[in-house]
Each structure stands twice: as structure tokens, then as C-alpha cells.
């Protein structure tokens, strides 16, 4: 898959080496909750190894990570994780470009349904996903369990 580039931003597949910069971005993104053990270096590296073609970063002209979008699939349904754009780079279509890349990968492998979890108090995130054409599921209550 080719990379997208304009004079300001370069988009490419995420690598484990991007973890520290990506995590710093996530820590500074309102509404991004990182309490899960899945958000460790090992957890993200595992996600990348299982989904190498559907996890992306955007970098600025100096190569600093300014946006991320991770796509993963269970073979039947796709999921988006850690979609984040540095505040000073928002409004340039970077987030939309990243998720469209993931959509293309998912379509190519036959995934027809995608889900994302947005924290209830992340109003800005909810508005972003609504503008992207996503619908809420009032019929579902999400549960999780740490092993």
C-alpha cells in the first residue's frame, strides 16, 4: 500500500517503534482512556503484528507522530482503536484520511461492519464520529473483564 503525503503530513503504517510518541499523543488527547493493560508497548505491538496493514500514523515534516488510527479485525468485524489527532493539526482531514485508509483495508479483506468504543463523557469524540456517518447503538451495553 502506498503512503499518502502532502507538503505537511506523511501517512504510513504504524510500527512498534512509534509507540512512545503515539502514547504521548494519546495521553494528551481528551477523552482517550488508557487504563487497559492492552495499551502497553506489548499490547500495541501485538495488535500491530496481527493487523500490520490497518494501523496508521501521520507524521509532521520533522517525522513526529501527530495522529494515529489503529484498525483490527476478528475476521468477521473490524474495530477502530486510538483514533487521535494532535490538537494543532485538527481540521485538516488527517483523521478522516487515516480512517478511510482503514476502511479500504477492511473492504479489501471482506469486512463489512466496523465498531468503535467512545467513552461516554467524550463529547468531542462522539461529535467527530457522528460527522463521519457513524450511528450509536442504544441497544448495546458494553462489558469488559480483565484476565
- CATH architectural label: 3-Layer(aba) Sandwich
- The arrangement of helices and strands along the chain is EEHHEEEHEH
CATH topology label: Aminopeptidase
Strand order across the biggest sheet? 1-2-3-4-5-6
Give the amount of beta strand, in percent. 15-25%
CATH level 1 class label = Alpha Beta
Could you describe the largest sheet, including whether it forms a barrel?
A: 6 strands, mixed
Distance from N terminus to C terminus (CA atoms, Å) equals 36 Å
Whole-number mean pLDDT: 91
Could you name the ranges where pLDDT drops below 50 across 5 or more consecutive residues? none
Helix content: 25-40%
Count every beta strand, where a strand is a DSSP E run of 2 or more residues. 6
Q: Indicate the radius of gyration in whole angstroms.
A: 15 Å
The chain-level structural class is alpha+beta
Number of separate structural domains: 1
Within CATH, the superfamily carries the name Gcn5-related N-acetyltransferase (GNAT)
Pfam families: Acetyltransf_1 (PF00583)
Domain N-acetyltransferase: 9-147
InterPro entries: Acyl_CoA_acyltransferase, Bact_Acetyltransf, GNAT_dom
Keywords: Acyltransferase, Transferase
Amino acid at each position: 500500500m502506498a503512503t499518502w503525503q502532502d507538503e505537511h503530513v506523511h501517512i504510513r503504517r504504524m510500527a512498534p517503534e512509534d509507540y512512545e510518541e503515539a502514547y504521548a499523543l494519546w495521553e494528551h488527547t481528551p477523552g482517550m482512556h488508557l487504563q487497559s493493560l492492552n495499551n502497553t508497548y506489548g499490547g500495541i505491538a501485538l495488535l500491530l503484528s496481527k493487523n500490520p496493514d490497518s494501523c496508521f500514523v501521520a507524521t509532521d515534516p520533522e517525522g513526529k507522530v501527530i495522529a494515529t488510527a489503529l484498525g483490527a479485525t476478528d475476521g468477521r468485524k473490524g474495530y477502530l482503536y486510538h483514533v487521535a489527532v494532535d490538537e494543532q493539526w485538527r481540521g485538516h482531514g488527517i483523521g478522516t484520511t487515516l480512517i478511510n485508509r482503514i476502511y479500504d483495508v477492511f473492504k479489501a479483506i471482506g469486512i463489512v461492519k466496523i465498531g468503535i468504543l467512545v467513552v461516554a463523557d467524550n463529547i468531542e469524540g462522539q461529535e467527530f464520529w457522528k460527522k463521519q456517518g457513524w450511528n450509536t447503538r442504544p441497544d448495546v451495553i458494553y462489558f469488559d473483564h480483565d484476565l
